[in-house]
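Severity: low
Component: inverse-folding endpoint
Summary: output formatting inconsistent between runs
Steps to reproduce: submit the following structure tokens with default settings.
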């Protein structure tokens, strides 16, 4: 049997930027992980209201949906288009994104900043060993597949499976580095 599989782990700026904004505005509660950066800063009343939180949540949901469709090969324009964020229609949300972009991108591009951390974690899991262990356990080769994993620096309690080909994963060893987590996924899908 000629099988081929690909797992592409990457930490891109777009979803990390949205988590950065959410963290700064105190939105990382409920389904999100509160252990995040940066701290909430003093905001004006307009930005604290539920409408702004709902706009952010809608942007998050649209962003992960469109990115998931893009990973499936469907042409989708992503919503995050810094630094002017021209695709954002809600003016208050757009103003916050424009205001926060410079501090985020400065951190992201620092010599020991977000992007460098992502490169470290992208290479950390021994995926070949996990696949070989799976094949040994089930007594067959793994089926052909492609899986894209976007790493989010902080803000998520657990991975979000957008579709069968795209997962958003927090940088947490209980997912990223845990052989059992990967083998369970392989058994479910491949």
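Observed output (run 2 of 3):
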């Amino acid at each position: 049997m000629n099988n081929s599989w690909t797992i592409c782990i990457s930490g891109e700026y777009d979803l990390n930027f949205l988590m950065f904004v959410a963290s700064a505005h105190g939105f990382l509660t409920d389904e999100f992980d509160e252990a995040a950066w940066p701290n909430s800063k003093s905001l004006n009343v307009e930005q604290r209201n539920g409408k702004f939180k709902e706009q952010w949540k809608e942007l998050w949901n649209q962003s992960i949906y469109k990115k998931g469709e893009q990973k499936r090969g469907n042409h989708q324009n992503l919503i995050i288009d810094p630094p002017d964020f021209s695709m954002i229609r809600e003016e208050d949300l757009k103003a916050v994104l424009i205001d926060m972009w410079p501090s985020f991108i400065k951190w992201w591009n620092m010599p020991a900043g977000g992007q460098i951390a992502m490169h470290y974690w992208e290479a950390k899991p021994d995926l070949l060993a996990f696949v070989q262990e799976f094949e040994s356990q089930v007594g067959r080769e793994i089926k052909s597949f492609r899986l894209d994993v976007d790493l989010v620096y902080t803000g998520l309690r657990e991975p979000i499976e957008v579709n069968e080909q795209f997962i958003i994963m927090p940088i947490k060893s209980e997912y990223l580095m845990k052989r059992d987590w990967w083998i369970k996924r392989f058994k479910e899908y491949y």
